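Q: Got a minute? One more chain.
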Amino acid sequence: MIFKMKKKGVSPVIATVLLIGIVIILAAIIFLWARGFVAEKAQKFERAVELSCANVNFRADVFGNDLDIINDGNVPIYGINVKIIGEGRVLVKEILDSTIGLGESKRIDLTGEIGTEVTELLIVPIILGETGSGKVSHECADQYGFAVAVI
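A: Always. Here it is, folded:
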């Protein structure tokens, strides 16, 4: 007597479908993992927020311990970074009190920050940009700042 063995296994069609399914699941996992490394670009006025820093136009002056800022531009200033430059040190103070709108001015009290060794203040604007998840602040580069000599 000859016995015939029945071979049982996965058919080539089912094997192919399983392999494609596994590849799609792995690709989705890798995509979701890598998406966390790519930052979403903030926009202002329909372009990258970094480009809007060039449109920020403001003046600043120091009177005693008070810093006066006047927004002459067409971009609202959300806040400022005051870089207090002295003999051998730079102190950065972030001020996010309220937005300085178009044509508005603001007086900021720097009591205790300006000493006799302070020679200059660099006022760097912070503006708001929008992403899909909400509003984010963006500090402009120092080149868009306004230098004020402290006498």
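A: Helices lie at 12-35, 49-52.
Q: Perfect, thanks.
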